[in-house]
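Quick one:
INPUT:
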């Protein structure tokens, strides 16, 4: 079986209720620009699709911080090198 290498970007939203929501998005997904635009436009909810295709609704007034980790490579699949 061949190994597949896949990149993801990890996004963590710090919520004002002392909780965090961490979502992995596909490379090229400019979550920072989407967040800034939604905030600037006074939107109440930001919808984010993760790397698995799940949609998450983020209530913008509850976000205390946004931390975006650089894209990183992840091996997906099985390898005989384990």
């Amino acid at each position: 079986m061949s190994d597949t290498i896949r990149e993801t970007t990890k996004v963590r939203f710090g919520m004002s209720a002392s909780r965090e929501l961490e979502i992995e998005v596909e490379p090229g997904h400019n979550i920072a620009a989407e967040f800034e635009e939604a905030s600037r436009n006074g939107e109440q909810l930001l919808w984010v699709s993760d790397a698995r295709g799940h949609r998450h609704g983020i209530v913008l007034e509850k976000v205390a911080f946004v931390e975006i980790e650089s894209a990183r490579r992840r091996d997906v699949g099985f390898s005989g090198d384990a």
